[in-house]
Amino acid sequence: MRIPDDKMEYYKDRAEMYVGEDVSPDFYAWVFPKCDHVAVGTGTVIDKKGIQRYQQGIRDRAAPRIAGGEVLRVEAHPIPEHPRPRRVNNRAALIGDAAGYVTKCSGEGIYFAAKSGRMCAERILINSEYGTRMIDEHDLKQHIREWDAKYGATYLVLDLLQKVFYTTDAQRESFVELCEEEYVQRVTFDSYLYKTVQGNNPIGDLKLGWQTLASLWKNENKVPDEMRTLV
Fold it and tell me: What is the pTM of this model?
């Protein structure tokens, strides 16, 4: 969507993420700047038929900041968030989106597509003795074991986080609250930077676990506050 220059200035150094039943029942919606326009979108796995309603929801939420915008293109893509149980058959291996390597919660897939391709190629190079022998299914399965050992925990943790924080508006409110914690911000940044689950601070993790339970209980048992207006 191309928006007026004064509104584009607002997105010069920021991106927006929205959560709520009105924009997605199990994911998030976004407004991301892209050079001279913005991407306005959302996603869902459990209610694909309602995607147009959720798309309208994010446009309504962001209306004051995208008013007067011109829709340049409307597009939709499947999000393969579940690593396939079988990713090797004979001498063929699935990588990237074909293997289901998009992460839960964030929906990131570009890094993992490139990384899985590189790791697979490196394993083929080594096991083929640099092209002097033909590889087989066993060689490719070795790559899968290496991939799962390196990134399997990341997918499991993000899957759990999505189930805990993206199911109801009360849970989403807890997610927003916890994101204000410095420890959460640091662990999230490091995990995103290194693409593996970070933390390794038992005291910090224990404190975060308690804060999570307390926040979830509080928000599940109170009348929701009015939605704050972004300015």
Answer: 0.83
